[in-house]
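Entry for the shared binder. Reason: the reviewer on the internal report wants the predicted structure included alongside the sequence.
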Amino acid sequence: MTDEPNHVDVAGSIPPGEYPCIWSVDGRDVSGSIDLRGNGAPVGTARVVLDPNVTRLPYERTYAVLRGFIEDQNAYVALTEVAAVTWFGGQALLHAAAAIVGRGQPLPDDLRFDQMTAQVTNLDYFSGVAPLSNQEIPTSEGSHRRWGATATELSREWLGTRGSATFCYSYKSTIDPFLLSVRFAPWLVIKSSEPLDVRVWHEQWCYPLVQLIAASTGKPEKLTHMRVGRLDGTEYTVYAKPITQQPYNAVKQSRLLLAFTADDRQFSLASALEKWGDLHDDGHPLMLGYNAFALAPDQNPRGRLLLLLQLLEASYGFENRDQVEIDQIAHGEDRAALIEKLRAMRDEQILTSREFLLAKSMPKVVYPTLERALRHYLNEHSNLSTEIHLAEIPAVAALISANGASSTIDALRVIRNGLSHGTVNYSDDDLRELTKYLHPVARAEFLRLLGATFEPKSLDWWQWA
């Protein structure tokens, strides 16, 4: 039986590991090494004196790019955003943001690339395309003993204003006298209207793709592989901290139903990723702050709840910032008029100076309240029935019954304030339940902003913590 590789095995790539390497440093070829890591930043060594005039160590020099050659793999490598640190004479440690590696393919001078291929866990659920178009399986002992299958030739393409995205499968098969096995790997190939460097490819396309899939599944997803390419067909593998290099194969999961739904005639994955970038650059709190890892069930329930409430409150303020500015102007005028009246009352000794100072301490800035934000989003995504479920949680029910809160939404305000100021504690079970029903609201708003809708039935399939 053929062992499954523990890394993404594609043409032209080399496995993660440490390799001897010849580096070009300040015009000199020097020996050293490179450690290509899965889910870790690449590091290396170079036997070089960075500056013979420097005697005080450690000494650090930065390089935008350092190039090298891995001779035993016939592979060219370029490290980006490198910090070279010398702790003792004649040896430099190389810490880089990313390594770009091409086996038998010299790297381009500008390190800019026209397309990028990415693999993310559960990417296949976005395609709507199964890897097999037909299959032939014997149904009984007496039937013919022939197994057969045809891999699909279908792919999906989405167009955007700055690029296109195409979904496809690759496959690997194993056939010997004792084993018949075929595995399919999902890929998304993105072509840009202009060449981009590796950092931009990751930040503008890979990261939002991971975030979109995470918001759709409700759990952390991982970027397993990333490679970049040129128009002439050459491709290079990228090694960096968020890229696991672990193989991911398409597997039917009966319990997984995406929350993501959209009209095929109107939705474009490429446009959704571009929209994420535009909102992120504008400073939208959900694009800046939504983090499926921080909201995962194994994280602290208090932190998860406070993060969710802050994201919803900040998102509402951002979406309504024009109205907030109008309200602020009106509040400033009302405050100034009131202070003048209070000043006259103080001068007439109707108010003491202490009373006047107390009244004058009213906030100069007015923001939308958490209650307004929650009311808006619970109404916007009323198909989730969130308020009904929240009202049944013991902490919420107890506050309302004791007249500590006037409504379910007011109870959330009281709970948030108590947790934020450390004046009240609540059981972890109650906090988990609150997070269980509020997390889908944040996910639904995230998807709405990118042109999709949230499927409530997905919550019946997933075991929320």
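Summary line for the report: Residues 345 and 408 are 40 Å apart (CA to CA).
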